Please model this.
Amino acid sequence: MALSDTAIRNAKPQDREFKLADSGGLYLLITPSGGKLWRQKFRVDGKERKLSIGRYPEISLSDARKRRDDAREQLAAGKDPAREKRREKIRSQQQAENTFAGIAKEYCSKRKRDGDKAWAPATAVRSEYLLRLLSDTIGPMPITEIEPADVLAALRKVESKGNLESAKRMQQLASSVFRYAVATTRLKSDPTRDLRGALTAPSVTHYGAITKASGVGELLRAIDGYEGQGITKFALQLAPHVFVRPGELRHAEWLEIDLEAALWTIPASKTKMRKEHKVPLSRQSIDVLKQVFEITGPSGYVFPSIRTRLRPMSENTINGALRRLG
Model:
């Protein structure tokens, strides 16, 4: 005989557990302490199994029957309802643990030790800072529940302050985190793919550049006629021959330079790509470096600060000299 709500409410605990059967293997277990627990009995490969459905009255009679029917459908499809429930519980736990902040932290850790493609320290610091700004809004959310509108709202906060480049970079980083989640099978697709064009594009600043060959000659002649600080002139004269970044030039040290082999080896720690970079030195470069060697060699920075040899030349020194040259 099928159960009724009245029969369930009137059931009183006894000295031992007892069952009130419904139908299709569903029954209510009454414990000596007064607990009323729904159970589903079924068979898999000829063996009896039990599925815990929940507690009455949190799970009503109608809800219990619906879950019984769901379990029977799983059985018909060749699935074990108890095993499927355990899997669903694990999936739910993983979703709760796989928040945007957690996966972003994991992604940053990977990028910092990503072999030849690893982030430089400065890039890592900047990227982690921008991702923390995002995490203030979407960080605690399970990554599977984040929608484009959630990401856009977080980006708008930064954009509204006029930080257009930061907002754009944050969007790129968020996309990288989502794509990492996809690659590690914790997300089906990147929600930021639908946000292309949503942010205001930052204005592009074009810097002065020589575009004609004749202009290069004028610049080199102006450098040769420079009358400022001597070390600055040498740095200006060397720059066109080595084609390195200003920071790499300023931080050059004598232990990196082999005048006999005509080779400057910039260590990986000083390069943007975090790879050792070898710069062949032309005859003109050697001539300039030999003159500098008489002043700042044989150790320390090739182009030290005018205030102390313990620091390299200021980043504004060369720029300032070029401005004075016009």
